[in-house]
Amino acid sequence: MCIRVQYAPLDSLVPWDDSRGVITVPEDLTGPHVLRAVRAVLTKLAIPQREFGAVCWCGEPVRLLSHVAQQQKSGGQVRMINHGA
Ligand SMILES: [Zn+2]
Q1: Does 80 fall in a domain?
Q2: Could you tell me if residue 54 is inside a domain?
Q3: Residue 21 is part of which domain span?
Q4: pTM for the whole thing?
Q5: For the chain, what is the largest distance between any 2 Cα atoms, rounded to a whole number of angstroms?
Q6: Distances (CA, A) of 46 to 2, 50, 55, 63, 77
Q7: Which tens digit of pLDDT belongs to each residue from 29-76?
């Protein structure tokens, strides 16, 4: 399973969850700081990183969700799509 990135408050943060393959970064990090934090964890996991971006152990780029998108997701708004209604 590919490595994912999530945000959490600093006091409850577990940087790397081995069972879920999730890297957690402090929720107040933004932009390049997120990337730097993610790369630091990936490097600790002995996953070779390219000069830019963050790379999963399978070679795919790790998706860094924007903080805004994450907040919208947890905001409880669910879009219903009606199929053939
Ligand atoms: Zn992967």
Answers
A1: no
A2: yes
A3: 4-74
A4: 0.73
A5: 50
A6: 15, 13, 11, 18, 38
A7: 988 899 999 999 999 999 999 998 999 999 999 988 655 544 444 444
